[in-house]
Known about the structure:
With 488 residues, the chain is of the alpha/beta class. It has twelve helices and nine strands. 34% of the residues lie in helices and 11% in strands. The longest helix is centred in the C-terminal third of the chain and has 28 residues, at 339-366. The termini are far apart.
Amino acid sequence: GENRFLPPQPVAPWTDPYVADRHADTAPQGPEPVDGTPVTPAFAPPDYVEAGDDCLALNIWAPEDAEGLPVMVWLHGGGWQSGSGSCAIYDGTNLASRGDVVVVTINHRLGAHGLTDFSRILGGKWGESDNLSVKDMVAALEWVQGNIAGFGGNPDTVTIFGESGGGWKVNTLLGVPSARGLFHRAIVQSGPLTRFHTPEAADDIARKMLGALGISTEAPEALNDVTMEQVLEAERAVQADLGGMMSGAPGFPSGFWPVIDGDFITRHVYDPDTAPAGSDVPVMVGHTGTEFTLFMLQDEAAYNLDAAGLETRVMGMFGEDNGPWLLETYRRDFPDYEPSALWFRLFSDYMMGTLSNEVLDVRARSANAPVYAYRFNWMTPIMDGKLYSPHTIEIPFVFDNATTDAGVIMTGGGDEVAALAETVSEAWVQFAKTGVPSAPGLPDWPAYDTEARQAMHLDLESTVAPYIDPRAESLFRGLLWAQAGLDN
């Protein structure tokens, strides 16, 4: 109704017991961007969960008799358009019980429901319709501040963490002035984001949404009567017109995206330096070894390359001047990788790692708190091992769910998997507790700096090495920034 494109409203207090033994509706949405992959079943919410308007909710897991424990608030993946805090792989039971932390997952508005900004072209009652998805997250963090002590959590030690689109959201909140002080550490998993939409770009999308809904600026009251299904249908039409959610490089503004509105979001989060709102928050940033094995399943040849096929692809993408030394560099650094694994490692570093490295570099130069880097290199045996280290694969390890029913779908299970999950989840918990990641069996984890550029490479035997080879990263950045129309 009239609240559809308005900021979230405070929940009304209650006095009778509230039965919280079921997940709420998830936000209205289309299909997952990576729907139909070998890992998709691990991200299913309970069968009874449906998409609906009554979706602003959170889930809490706490150890019995918890008191004053660090709080870890998870922001789900799915870009800005899909996903849920109720996915099976996000179940917080194991992480809370083994880590002595309180785990929270949240739902918030997505896509056109959450990121259509009518504030400038309509004004009036829609004058605060900008960045609603992010305003929902801030409202959830405010709720945590006011209420989490009742569940045994410490509101002064809150960590936000998220993967893929959830990592975008973590970075976004680091640039939101009103979110300052609502969290105290941040972890970005495979979700680099440096920039927001301009008002002009957001206004163009808002006009396209009105057109798809058949509503004029002279009679905007009709927005009060549109249904969830009509908004989703209009969203699909606008996305098709814009070229799809992933029309640009991951982490660059495209489609339904937060906007610099001059009030709630006042500037880019990492361009040219770290936004003051999150400058004093310790941050951990990383991504998996071969992110794009999950996104390129239609390219069957890429998973069965020989040496000649690898060279053809690298030369074709990076040219005769750069191809030979790139191949030499990656073969030197990953001597045990087969040709397809090397291709996906190189391509993933180019398309996603470069932006993560940009976040690391900017924070290392201009933030007031340390930043730590990781790469998750463990390779899953599912799909005959051809996924290598795909997008999302660290999630079951972070939640210590690698041997649950959902986790086995992604990892295959086993004792080595369980041991690595114990190590990784402990490192995340220690970062939440202290601001420094560590775990028994890991080497000392150095803070990232722009000289040594060191990261923890997580595997059955973890090592410290550069996040990406510096010469390769410099080439990738130049190409990617040129593609985005930015000065390098």
